[in-house]
Prior knowledge:
Helix 1 packs parallel to helix 2 (40-50), helix 1 (17-28) crosses helix 7 (219-232) and helix 4 runs parallel beside helix 5 (153-172). The protein is of the alpha/beta class. It has a 7-stranded parallel beta sheet with strand order 3-2-1-4-6-7-9, with helices on both faces. A two-stranded parallel ribbon has the order 5-8. It has helices at residues 17-28, 40-50, 67-81, 104-130, 153-172, 202-215, 219-232, 241-252, 258-267, and strands at 8-12, 32-37, 57-61, 86-89, 95-96, 135-140, 178-185, 197-198, 236-239. The longest helix is centred in the middle third of the chain and has 27 residues, at 104-130.
Amino acid sequence: MKKMYGRVAVVTGSSSGIGRACAVELARRGCHVALVDVNEEGMAQTARLLETYRHNVSQHVVDVADKERMAALPQEVLDAHGAVHILINNAGVSHASTFEDATLEDFEWIVGINFWGVVYGCKFFLPHLKAQDEAHITNISSIFGIIGLPTQSSYAATKFAVRGMTESLRYELAETNIGLTCVHPGAINTNIVAAARFHLGKEVQERSQRMFAKRGMPPEVAGRLIVQAIEDNNPRLIITRAAYLIDALKRVYPALPSKWVHNSWKKWF
């Protein structure tokens, strides 16, 4: 986007982590921000962080998996801000389980938030974004939108879907005023593991949390990179060195040996 100051940005999943970091960075660059999250308390904390920048901030309690609630959201944002220029579909959850042990309800839950939430955001905001002189959609995929690893079948399914839909939509909107960015973060130090549906045992979950805390990139860094990608109209953003390495390996060896993948995955925990 050529201009950031004075724009109105919508950020889903803005109560913590990457969403909060994006909201803060957008406000720092002069944007008005519509915060969207199901966690009202966490969203209010984010709003307080934005008070320093003295831009308009609105809060919208929304479950992104709720189609009717998402359909009503654009008008709420317009009522609060008068326009919308930037949409960051960031809200997401995680699920760790073997495919055999995962329930269909687990899949329905994660698909509803991670994929349908992105679909609803794009679908319902698109007419309003097209009405602006310039606009941008950013969809948060994952490194698991590039590679599928053990115990991540449901999560990877949603993140591959976000990647594919974003790429298709980008081509469809290539001649319009709307840019699109698909983001593939690696390990970011957020609470996604703590909040996950984790069916691998408490010990593995706690070990995973320690790994994210030790090796994960601070969300503030990720937020700055994402907002910069919006400003630069980058179609694709990979975050963290490990994510770059995995992306490179997948380009060289599209079908990585199963034994190598399994052994490498075990070393992370």
